[in-house]
Every structure is written in C-alpha cells, then in structure tokens.
Amino acid sequence: xxxxxxxxxxxxxxxxxxxxxxxxxxxxxxxxxxxxxxxxxxxxxxxxxxxxxxxxxxxxxxxxxxxxxxxxxxxxxxxxxxxxxxxxxxxxxxxxxxxxxxxxxxxxxxxxxxxxxxxxxxxxxxxxxxxxxxxxxxxxxxxxxxxxxxxxxxxxxxxxxxxxxxxxxxxxxxxxxxxxxxxxxxxxxxxxxxxxxxxxxxxxxxxxxxxxxxxxxxxxxxxxxxxxxxxxxxxxxxxxxxxxxxxxxxxxxxxxxxxxxxxxxxxxxxxxxxxxxxxxxxxxxxxxxxxxxxxxxxxxxxxxxxxxxxxxxxxxxxxxxxxxxxxxxxxxxxxxxxxxxxxxxxxxxxxxxxxxxxxxxxxxxxxxxxxxxxxxxxxxxxxxxxxxxxxxxxxxxxxxxxxxxxxxxx
Length: 410
Description:
Strand order of the largest sheet: 16-11-13-12-18-19-17-20
Pfam family, one: ALO
Oligomer: single chain
Low-confidence stretches: none
Helix content: 10-25%
Organism: Asanoa iriomotensis
Protein name: Xylitol oxidase
InterPro entries: ALO_C, FAD-bd_PCMH, FAD-bd_PCMH-like_sf, FAD-bd_PCMH_sub1, FAD-bd_PCMH_sub2, FAD_lactone_oxidase-like, Oxid_FAD_bind_N, Vanillyl_alc_oxidase_C-sub2
CATH architecture of the largest domain: 2-Layer Sandwich
Domain FAD-binding PCMH-type: 12-176
C-alpha cells in the first residue's frame, strides 16, 4: 500500500510504502541501517519520482538546523532539512550572508543542493557551488563527511540522493549586505537577441519573465548590491509592487521599487511566509551553454503559441560554471530557461518532447527535479562514468537507488 503523500503542488504522489520523520541524526542513522531501500525527502519541491522508493521515505524536515558559524573559515554548517529562508534569517542575525538564493526560500538545503537548484547572476554559481562539505549517512548507518578538495567531493554534492542521506551541509558565507530590487516592464524582445550579455549583466541578479506569445519581455527583475539603473534599454521601473503572474497577490513577493533591504529579503522572488508562485503548477527547466542561447531562442520562438497555451510564465536566468559532476552548470556558464506550467500533466508532457528536441541537441541539461521526458541525459555529463563508479563504491547494493535515478544515471 502506497502512502498518500504529495509534493508541494500536489502534482506528484510519492511511491513509497513507509514514511519516517526522525528528530535526530542518530535516529535517522538507525532507520537507514535497518531499511532495505531508502530515499530522502526534503520540502517536497520536486515534481517527479526522484524521491520515490519501494522502501523507506525518510523526511529530513524534522532534523534540527543547529547552525554552526565559523567566521574564521567563512563557513556555516546547517542541518540538511533546514529551509534556505530560515538559514538566511539565522545567518543575517549574526552578520553573515549567502552569495545567492533561489527564487523560493522555502526549499531545503540538501534537496536544493542535490538537484543543482540555483538563483541568477552572471558571476554567481548555483546553490551547490557554495557547498564546502557534506555529511551523509551511508547504507550501514555510518556517517561520513566529504569536503571540498577531496577526491569524491565533486561527485558528492549534486548527487540526486543516490549516495546516502545528507544530514549536514557546510556552506560558504560572507558578511551581510544590502540589496535593492526593481522590476522593469515591457522590454522589447529584440534586446534579448542583440544585447543579451548587457541585459543579464545589468545587475547582480537578473531574471527575464515572458510568455513567448508576443515580441515583448513582460518583466525584468533586477537585484543589485549597488545602484539600479534609471531605465533599462528604455524600460522604466514599476512604481508599485509587481508579481510575475497576472492577478497573483503582490504581498507574496519580496520588496521592490529600489527600496534597500537585507539580502535574504530581496534575492528570493517570494517571501517565506507566503505560498510561492500559485502553488497549482508543474515546472520544467533546461540549462544550456551560454554560447547556445540565441540558437535556443530562435528555436523556441516558432513554438511560442503552443507553449503559451499551457504556460503560466517563463523565467530566464544565468548561472556561473562549476566543477560538480552532475551539476547543470558543470564545465561552463549556462542560461536557464524555466517554464512554470498550468497543472495539466497530459498537455504539458505532450509538449515536452518537442521542446527537448530543440534544446537538448544544443547541450541543454534538464533540471533534475523538474518535469522532463528524455532518458538520454547521461551523455550530457562528461563525468557521469565517474559518478557511476563512485555510486557503486559507496552504495554497492543500491540502497539509495530508485527507478528514476537508475534510468537517468544508469
């Protein structure tokens, strides 16, 4: 009998017969050691069967955050199940900050890191790029720690939960800073075609929102650690709060209109206390080499009318390169093309093969935790053979495997 447990958007029911929510790491270790198959569950922001298991679904949400700040090393170590928004508040209270945050502060540290989730910024890496070390439970219940610089590290950060249950994560931190945010509306699409580098370089973090049905970019969200431009290629900043989804409540979004605020109250798009986006949705994202972005735009534009039929909004962001084996930004700077779909799986999954036929030949890598259909993604990762070897060594019996991971990784 399967659990009646769903992801946050209630678009996926987890395939697992048993759920456990340990309150301590020692309790989690005992549970892992005693189970035949285990998958970790964070804040349920995955849209697919990535967390499914025929055995034990182990929630990390009840593990304590227990923030440990090492100011000399410039690191903070936190419980894996902690939400980024909560970590950020605790860090800022002590005068420290993260370099980036995702659009949602509601996601868990371990889950976001394991899938390569990111914010935006030409010179800013993903959330995983800030990881200094991970502590995880192996198949026998023993704890092990893998740190930056060690041979297994680059394969152990973005690891899809396939190497064990992560319990603690050590992150790079820096002194707290202030950010200003403004939203610029109705920018000609031609700016993205002729001046993409200047557009995404206009601030510390830049997000483009559009629906593919017109020749305009509906909104550009700029987040700056300095001054904001008076206009953006002719577009001026909105003088009232704006949501990227028409008709959605603006009290859910972080402060705009150039009003300075703490980094953690500006870098995410949404406030921690509110439901992000609409909550009724599916999501897909494809991260492609920055050098291929114009080819991708040219390929997708003719598909615009079909995309718009099932789309709530597209967001385009940039992410700096890293060296993490299964990261979508491995080996080069990337551009993420994100789709927030209506909650209609049949229509969305009917469209995805056509989108992937255009983007995957350009080197686009699907976000591991979001909706996609291709099972031939392993070839997009030059270190995949190394990851398979690492997985076989640390989990030889496949305790942390599941059908989707096996299909994607091999």
